[in-house]
Amino acid sequence: MPATTIAVRVLLVSGDIQTIDTVCHFMGTMAMHVEVCSDFAAATRKLCHTKFEAVVVDFQDRAEALSLLKKSRQMTSHRAAVVVAILNSNDEMPSAFRAGASFVLVKPLSAAVLMRTLKVSYPLMVHERRRYFRCPLEVPVFVSSSSHSDFMATTANISEVGIAVTNSRGLQVGDRVALRLTLPHNPVAARIDAEVCWCDRAGSAGMEFVQIPALVKEQLISWLATRLEECLPEEAALKC
């Protein structure tokens, strides 16, 4: 599989040019992909439709910032994301942590403190990236269920929590299936129970793992971690 660049994705919510320039500069040195949003309503919509491994929120508008932090923690996709609050004063620390901040920075931003915070938080961002990382994978997979005839499909990608396949036959959302496939670098076929969570007319389907043997899960996580490390920008990997 050819390596492609898969940077950690960060949503920076701020309308302050100096803060934006400073944060983007230091995150750029770690090869993070930063998307800037100055509007809190727009930021909420982005969090609903796009997965970010980290969210950085400027407390220029304290009430809006606290509301966004709380909303992000209520979203399944961002419940475990790294959240950094940029505060106006130390007095805002308790409320920021209660709202869900993982780390806090206080203005004026110190280059040394910002870089130290990024170095500590970066491995957590990579871990979150890995959980949602879908690695392209094309291997045969045997699909069986009580409501359909057994058939052979082809995997399209795989993650820690699920798999997508092509050439599926008549699967419906909610179907429980048993999958048998051989993971890369593992000579023994793995049996995984899964549930169909989406499908289309072209024969593609996405499945969420329901039950996966502990050893198989350990091997899958290890393999995905290696693939992600190969795909991460070299500059970022050196910082981890």
Q: How many β strands by DSSP?
A: 12
Name the poorly predicted regions: 1-5, 235-240
Q: Helix and strand succession?
A: EHEHEHEHEHEEEEEEEHH
Q: Using the coordinates shown, work out and report the CATH topology of the largest domain.
A: Rossmann fold
Task: Give the overall shape.
Answer: elongated
How many DSSP H or I helices?
7
Describe the strand arrangement of the main beta sheet, using strand numbers.
Answer: 7-8-9-12-11-10
Helical amount: 25-40%
What keywords describe this structure?
240 residues; alpha/beta; Rossmann fold; Thrombin, subunit H; 2 domains; five-stranded parallel sheet; disordered C terminus
Protein model, in words:
The protein has 240 residues and is of the alpha/beta class. It has 2 domains: 9-132, 3-Layer(aba) Sandwich (Rossmann fold), CATH 3.40.50; 135-213, predicted glycosyltransferase like domains (Thrombin, subunit H). Helix content is 37%, strand content 28%. It contains 7 helices and 12 strands. It has a 6-stranded antiparallel barrel with strand order 7-8-9-12-11-10. A 5-stranded parallel beta sheet has the order 2-1-3-4-5, sandwiched between helices. β3, α3 (62-74) and β4 form a beta-alpha-beta unit. α1 (17-29) crosses α5 and α2 (40-49) packs parallel to α3. The two termini are 23 Å apart. Mean pLDDT is 88; it is low at 1-5 and 235-240.
In short:
The chain has 240 residues and is of the alpha/beta class.
Produce the secondary structure layout.
Layout (H helix, E strand, L loop, with lengths): L8 E5 L3 H13 L3 E5 L2 H10 L4 E5 L3 H13 L7 E6 L5 H7 L3 E4 L4 H22 L2 E2 L3 E5 L6 E8 L3 E5 L9 E6 L8 E10 L5 E7 L2 H18 L2 H6 L1
